[in-house]
From TrEMBL:
Belongs to the MoeA family. It comes from Rhodococcus spongiicola. One of its GO terms (cellular component) is cytosol. Residues 188-324 form the MoaB/Mog domain. This is Molybdopterin molybdenumtransferase.
Length: 402
């Protein structure tokens, strides 16, 4: 393959390469579960159904600040009753309640056993140790019965639920300190290039900030992965080999950026070709040069170094599979109406950076794969089929949310 790279054969289709990637990443899809603290569970996916271990409410309590009464004694109003006790919210056994008396009660406090209604304080007037009730309430009003929300053993949440704050709320309400979730696929990111330096330093002549490391790590996390390693190597094969060895030891998927096209220092291509990788061109733009390998049993995907190419490669080839592995809902394409004419390269499926508008969608970037600032304005990729060379304003186009 190394000899053929200056005369690349026919480009493969996006669909064919996606199928190869899907085969390669198949092992990521079956995931064991792990038990984690509820505090860490936001955004994770439940691996089991969860039934309630308790009744909710856990005890019969007041829904209002007011007076617990028996409804029969306030059937005719105004009714004046002696106040015999006060119950704040807090640890307490149910107070005894005698007919034709009132117990001053706070929201969430244990209901006295004989009382069957709460009169909100607004409908009463207190003088000395008596309360006059001005509005009748029937049995059950403003009383929260034990188990009226959920009963012990009833289904709370189903396996596969993506935990949002409302789910955390109920799990905490039933007193669960931990929860079983799907493990996240562990991903390692390796960027390559002698020109790369870290943010926070000053680039010397010919140097640039490494943006693909941060971008790919963020993409992986945004799609349910755990990023085990973000590392970098220069263009020396030994440096790349050593970074690669560490990555495959700690991750279930390694993604590299750079070093795969036609230059003299294609470290990723050179090292991985020795290890049996397949490289080739895919009929797409951006993201044309792609490769895949298995190193020590771990799948390795090699993305082109141009920052837009790297991110588009991730969205097209990895995002769907990572989301499936993580148990996240799939991202589906939509259709939108083009606000203006668009031209496209024949024979390549183009992913143009676009933004939704009130009327449809517009392109926000030129075709250059280095245009990261323009990419940041985009919220969709316009998916222009390989056989299209031009589309007109008003045409419908497939768009993928970013
Ligand atoms: N003669 C040819 N040259 C190129 C071809 C070609 O077909 N024939 N293809 C072009 C296309 S398309 C792409 S895409 C790139 C892919 O190149 P590589 O994957 O080998 O990537 P590099 O050469 O290492 O870098 C390309 C570009 O991106 C910048 N870069 C790389 N890594 C990072 C990073 N982590 N953060 C920010 N920017 C990065 C790098 O400095 C280069 O400017 O090849 C074309 N050339
Ligand atoms: O494929 Mo390159 O990714 O067009 O810029």
């Amino acid at each position: 393959m190394a000899h053929q790279q200056r005369h690349p054969g026919t480009a493969r289709s996006v669909e064919d390469h996606a199928a190869d990637v899907s085969d390669l990443l198949g092992s990521l899809l079956t995931r064991p579960s792990e038990t984690i603290r509820l505090d860490d569970a936001l955004g994770r996916v439940l691996s089991d159904d969860i039934s309630s271990p308790i009744d909710l409410p856990l005890f019969r309590n007041s829904q209002m600040d007011g007076f617990a009464v028996d409804s029969a004694s306030i059937a005719t109003v105004p009714a004046t009753l002696p106040i015999v006790a006060t119950v704040p919210a807090g640890p307490a056994e149910p107070a005894a309640h005698l007919a034709a008396t009132a117990v001053r009660i706070m929201t969430g406090a244990v209901m006295p056993s004989g009382a069957d209604a709460v009169v909100p304080v607004e409908d009463t007037e207190v003088s000395d140790d008596k309360v006059t009730v001005y509005r009748s309430r029937s049995a059950g009003e403003f009383v929260r019965e034990r188990g009226s929300d959920v009963r012990t053993g009833a289904l709370l949440l189903t396996s596969g639920t993506l935990l949002a704050p409302r789910h955390i709320s109920v799990l905490a309400a039933v007193g669960l300190p931990s929860v079983a979730v799907r493990t996240r696929p562990k991903v390692a990111i390796i960027t390559t290039g002698a020109e790369l330096v870290d943010a926070g330093t000053t680039p010397g002549p010919g140097q640039i900030f490494d943006s693909n490391g941060a971008a790919l790590a963020a993409s992986a996390r945004a799609n349910g992965a755990e990023v085990a390693i973000v590392d970098r190597s220069g263009d020396e094969p030994d440096a790349f080999r050593s970074v690669l060895r560490r990555a495959v030891a700690h991750a279930e998927l390694v993604i590299t950026s750079g070093g795969v096209s036609m230059g003299d220092y294609e470290v990723v291509k050179d090292v991985l070709t020795e290890l049996g990788a397949r490289f080739g061109r895919i009929a797409m733009q951006p993201g044309g040069p792609q490769g895949l390998a298995v190193v020590d049993g771990v799948p390795v995907l090699t993305f082109p170094g141009n920052p837009v190419s790297t991110l588009v490669s991730f969205e097209v080839f990895v995002r769907p599979l990572l989301r499936r592995a993580a148990g996240l809902p799939p991202i589906s394409p939509a259709e939108a109406t083009l606000d203006h004419d668009v031209t496209s390269v024949p024979g390549k499926r183009q992913f143009l950076r676009g933004r939704r508008t009130a009327s449809g969608v517009e392109v926000v970037s030129g075709p250059g794969s280095h245009l990261v600032a323009a990419l940041a304005w985009a919220d969709v990729l316009l998916d222009i089929p390989a056989d299209a060379t031009s589309l007109a304003a008003g045409d419908r186009v497939k768009v993928w949310p970013l």
